[in-house]
Amino acid sequence: MKTKTKPAEKEKDTKSGEKNLKGNQNIALERIYRLFELAEGNDKYQKRYLQLAKRIGEKCRVQISKELKIKYCKKCYSMKVLTKEEKPFLVVKCTECGFVKRFGLKEKK
Asked: Which fold has domain 13-68?
């Protein structure tokens, strides 16, 4: 007779405000944060590190946090961006390619 096994329990990290994540998703988030740290200190491999971070997020179904998204241009993967607050948006403009991304300032309830 087959016995049912419980699916892997989801972990919850309440201190950083993250949702319930599986084990491999936690590892993916750690790798994403580490790649962003490396990208800030290394201009030569900066675009490659950001591409890898985005791909890891897509593969493991983990969203890159808003605090990291406003640090780079999603079009050319440059970290040379200007952020400006224009109500009701936070406007992020790339200085290399001119791409403009707007983030809503209102928090969802």
From this structure: 1.20.5
What pLDDT, in 10s, does the model give residues 51-103? 999 999 999 999 999 999 999 999 999 999 999 998 899 999 999 999 999 99
- Tens of pLDDT, residue by residue over 36-61, are 999 999 989 999 999 999 999 999 99
**Pick from 97, 50, 56, 98: nearest CA to 77:** 50
Q: Where are the domains of the chain?
A: 13-68, 70-109
- In whole angstroms, what is the distance from residue 91 CA to residue 14 CA? 29
Provide the 3-class DSSP secondary structure of residue 54: helix
Residue among 64, 17, 61 at smallest CA distance from 49? 64
With CA atoms as reference, report the closest residue to 60 among 102, 106, 21: 21
**Residue 85: strand pairing partners:** 90
Q: Is the pTM of this model over 0.85?
A: no
Residue 10 and residue 26 in contact, taking contact as beta carbons nearer than 8 Å: no
